[in-house]
Write a structure and sequence with these properties.
Keywords: Membrane, Transmembrane, Transmembrane helix. This protein is mainly α. It is built from seven helices and four strands. The chain has helices at residues 23-45, 110-117, 120-129, 160-180, 192-209, 212-219, 229-237, and strands at residues 50-51, 63-64, 183-184, 187-188.
Length: 238
């Protein structure tokens, strides 16, 4: 019958590739799992995320972990934290007792992580490495009766375009932290930590300002790039 589908259903991991296609998804799986474990630990502890080289330092400067920047609230008595005066909203409020470890990181990480977790590249990476849909190009994935795309619960991926605005704000915040990292109690100095904190926003900026959503914001939203001078200018910016 002509109504019958042509071919046969592909099994998981079935392929005709002759290269080591499985290396890439395995590295991604290991890398993302390592980051999830480390970031959860770093956010949970709520301590030792700031260093100035001086005990009870009150001057500006020092190394502040990007996971904890900006410090919205700070819990008094914790080790390795900035002075309470550095917190944007002061001491830790009683109504936030439920956050693990009195860690301000829980109030911050939701914004940059929502941007990166829904990024087109990351989506491709964890769809392949975690759900095998498919694990690689021209490799059989988990059999599905119907392809539904990013529907249902996966509609949350659409927050990417809105999370981008928060991600841009964090680029400037981390850039400010990088500048402050070159000072100890107001005195200029260069260390390995200050260089690392400077490289961090530079790389994140390249990632953020080169993402699909930002390019669409700058030069997209047009059906024709050659229909007018303005459209051609938008295409050059894109």
């Amino acid at each position: 019958s002509m109504s019958q589908p042509i071919g046969r259903e592909r099994k998981l991991f079935s392929n005709l590739r002759e290269d080591n296609w499985w290396i890439s998804p395995m590295l991604v799986l290991f890398g993302l799992l390592s980051f999830i474990v480390y970031s959860t630990w770093a956010a949970w502890q709520g301590e030792y995320f700031w260093w100035s080289g001086t005990i009870n330092a009150e001057g500006f400067g020092g190394y502040l972990s990007p996971f904890y920047s900006p410090p919205l609230f700070l819990k008094e008595g914790m080790n390795g934290i900035p002075p309470i005066s550095h917190a944007l909203f002061g001491a830790w409020p009683d109504w936030l007792w439920w956050l693990p470890g009195y860690s301000p990181a829980w109030l911050i990480l939701v914004f940059p992580l929502s941007f990166r977790f829904t990024c087109y590249y990351y989506r491709k990476a964890y769809y392949r490495a975690f759900s095998f849909t498919p694990p690689a190009c021209a490799v059989g994935g988990i059999p599905q009766k119907d392809y539904k795309g990013e529907t249902g619960i996966l509609l949350f991926q659409n927050i990417h375009r809105y999370a981008m605005y928060f991600a841009i704000i964090f680029i400037f915040i981390l850039s400010y932290d990088a500048i402050m990292a070159f000072f100890r109690n107001g005195e200029f100095g260069v260390g390995v930590g200050s260089i690392v904190l400077l490289i961090n926003p530079l790389l994140l900026g390249a990632y953020t300002f080169g993402c699909h959503s930002f390019r669409h914001l700058i030069g997209g939203r047009r059906d024709c790039f050659s229909c007018s001078h303005a459209a051609e200018h938008a295409h050059s910016k894109w």
